[in-house]
Write a structure and sequence with these properties.
Layout (H helix, E strand, L loop, with lengths): L3 H11 L7 E2 L10 E4 L4 E3 L3 E3 L2 E4 L4 E4 L2 E4 L4 E4 L2 E4 L2 E4 L4 E4 L2 E4 L4 E4 L2 E4 L2 E4 L2 E4 L3 E2 L2 E2 L3 E4 L2 E4 L2 E4 L2 E4 L9 E3 L1
Parallel strand pairs: 1-3, 2-5, 3-6, 4-7, 5-8, 6-9, 7-10, 8-11, 9-12, 10-13, 11-14, 12-15, 13-16, 14-19, 15-20, 16-21, 19-22, 20-23
Antiparallel strand pairs: 17-18
Amino acid sequence: MKYLPALAAVCLLIVPSVVLAQQITPNPNLSGHEIWVETPHITNDTSFVNNGMINITSSGTLTNNSTMRNSNQGYVLNDGHLNNKATLGNYEGSTLYNKSTFENLPGATLTNEGNIENSRYMVNRGTLNNTGVWVNGLLTGGKLNTFGRLINAGTLTNTGKVTITQENSTGWTLANI
């Protein structure tokens, strides 16, 4: 019995550690509240509503495995890695600003009725619906502005406005493959 604590310590050192993902909280994220994603393995595994700000830092990864709504002036700032594996809605009045890597994975759906600003790398392998909301002849949403790289390897439907800005020296492009 005197060797049991030593055996337990050896087992902990030999068995590889398992990193479990943490659920993003609070849900809903209220207007004026900020959620900081500063480590990898943060997930959304339940229906989630963002009315505030989600800031994904350069060392952070947020993976949406369920239904995530960015609505009511919600703001998502991605300086890290954002993965959509399910349904992500960016609704009128909301902004998703990608300054690093955003991936809409196979089988996933991204619906934009708000504003998406992409200044780095955005890849669509699922379905991207850029849906404009027209009010009295004016487009009030569905604005997708890219001055980074936008790669479409899935389905991209546009009834809104897509603006692609070609940088003089960087050669940013829209690739539809």
